[in-house]
Amino acid sequence: MQKCDALKLFAEIKEEEHKDAKFKIVLDIGCGSGNLTKHFYENFDCEEIIAFDKNEMMIEFSRQQNKIENIRFEIANLADQSDKIRRDIKLSENADLIYSIYCLHWLKDKQNAVKNIHNLLNKGKQK
């Protein structure tokens, strides 16, 4: 179900909203196995994807299964403060796009999560 929903979402983004968009940095929150991260990278024009999850074993699995130069898998928790997340994922500048598939509902403090996403997102116009 997750994959099916994610693929529908990616298709909608590509067809309706960002079909010609070029993303410098994309964040995938709660990336799990990294399969959807890889799919996103293969279907969108992005320089780098930083995918993160709080589960260290999933990140290790993702790194082994998805060896793509422009995708980095990092251990980080969206429940932390945005400055800590920024350090944990080695984010040098804000992301052009942030997405999460079936992750946010697990967080207890959703208000903090939304604040963190806002703080990590590029406020400039998309080209």
From TrEMBL:
Domain Methyltransferase type: 27-124
Name of one Pfam family that matches: Methyltransf_12
Molecular-function GO terms, alphabetical: methyltransferase activity
Any one Gene Ontology BP term: methylation
Record keywords: Methyltransferase, Transferase
Record-linked Gene3D superfamilies: Vaccinia Virus protein VP39 (3.40.50.150)
SUPFAM superfamilies noted in UniProt: S-adenosyl-L-methionine-dependent methyltransferases (SSF53335)
Name of the protein in question: Phosphomethylethanolamine N-methyltransferase-like protein
